[in-house]
Amino acid sequence: MATIELNNENLQDTIKNNAIVLIDFWASWCGPCQSFGPVFEAASEKNPDMVFAKVNTEEQQELAAHFQVRSIPMLAIFKEQILVFSQPGALPASALDQLIGQVKELDMDKVRADIAEQQNKA
Hints:
Blueprint: E1 4-5, H1 11-16, E2 20-26, H2 31-46, E3 51-56, H3 61-66, E4 74-79, E5 82-88, H4 93-105, H5 108-121
């Protein structure tokens, strides 16, 4: 599956209507972003059951601010509408594949229980 461009109009529907969504925050002037782009695209081809989306931080500044993007490239991953990963830095293909495997294996009932426990402590 090819990557899609995310913006304010399609963000919520994309996250709500897909089990797993990976978002690559990037900019055209960013060297590491240019290196990570083909790795992200290749992973999208290997994982057609997931949505791979890109956010151009220059064109979508409001979205970048919403996700508190301070450094690019930055990868954010949602599973079942919960943000389960968010980290700046370009990943090599092997690390991205491993991360995708870990996200697929996540027990979301446990994740939701952990979130509820944290909220109760707050």
